Amino acid sequence: MKLLRFGPNGAEKPGMLDTDGAIRDLSGVIGDIAGETLGDEIIGRLKGTDPFSLPKVEGDPRVGACVGQVGKFICIGLNYADHAAEAGMELPAEPVIFFKATSAIIGPNDTVEIPRGSVKTDWEVELGVVIGKEAKYVAEAEAMGHVAGYCVINDLSERDFQLHRSGQWVKGKSADTFGPIGPFLVTRDEVPDPQNLPMYLEVNGHRYQDGSTKTMHFSVATIISHLSQFMSLQPGDVISTGTPPGVGMGQNPQTYLKPGDRMELGIEGLGVQQQDVVAG
């Protein structure tokens, strides 16, 4: 099942894709795709709903972030063996954890703004994991039962802010528009193996990232279990699990986003994002 949110920014409605790829309006069934709505009980009820019995959304509405009211936006750094090699850094002994501000979240096709003072705005296609059930001190063997589903994330980064402005990485990760999420949330039953998903990112038609979750250093289950030892994970929390090689920082010469660029990125079975880049 593919769930999404559509409509103007701040006034999105919940929706479901039917088998023809049309959006069906779920607002008469649930209030939003957020929080407790992502639990197994309600997800199970939605799976039993015939999408063709729901109102069809006409036209071409804006698609918002596929999860609303995100409590925590957690990211994992240096989690692909080939990306760590590209960055000239050793693989960590434990997952590297940082946060993005939730105010960075936008829809999958919304415009990305380069922040003021930026000289190194970069791209990162990542597998997003959405929590559906509270996870606290969870064993790795039980971790996947806490997942509602998966989505595409572009973990945009300003490398100069991230690496040279002191403190944690959050400075380079949290600018407004630096967190496109979606286009849809694919429920976990449709993704039998999240460790075998091809993924890509292109800028202006040139493919920079062409990888797979197969090269993740820490699996989704390991990440969830590890995080749950330090904080409870709540329904609607989003985890961005790292990026494969091909980021702008890893190019020779280094290549960064500029106004007028257009990004396209996707993960097999999880959909495609497209973002135009403008000056902030």
Can you walk me through this structure?
By secondary structure, the protein is of the alpha+beta class. 12% of the residues lie in helices and 29% in strands. It has helices at 40-47, 81-87, 159-164, 170-173, 220-228; strands spanning 2-6, 13-17, 23-25, 73-77, 96-99, 105-106, 112-114, 121-122, 125-131, 147-154, 157-158, 179-180, 185-187, 198-203, 206-212, 238-240, 262-267, 271-279. A hairpin with a 3-residue loop joins strand 17 and strand 18 (271-279). The mean pLDDT is 96.
Give the arrangement of secondary structure elements.
Elements: E1 2-6, E2 13-17, E3 23-25, H1 40-47, E4 73-77, H2 81-87, E5 96-99, E6 105-106, E7 112-114, E8 121-122, E9 125-131, E10 147-154, E11 157-158, H3 159-164, H4 170-173, E12 179-180, E13 185-187, E14 198-203, E15 206-212, H5 220-228, E16 238-240, E17 262-267, E18 271-279
Parallel strand pairs: 4-16, 6-12, 7-18
Antiparallel strand pairs: 1-2, 1-13, 2-3, 4-5, 8-11, 9-10, 9-16, 10-13, 14-15, 14-17, 17-18
Report helical residue fraction.
10-25%
Structural class by SSE content? alpha+beta
| Overall strand count | 18
Poorly predicted parts: none
How would the global form be characterised?
A: globular
Give, in order, the helices and strands.
EEEHEHEEEEEEEHHEEEEHEEE
Oligomer: single chain
Instruction: Give the neighbour order of strands across the main sheet.
Output: 3-2-1-13-10-9-16-4-5
What amount of the residues lies in strands? Answer: 25-35%
Number of helices: 5
What is the CA–CA distance across the termini?
36 Å
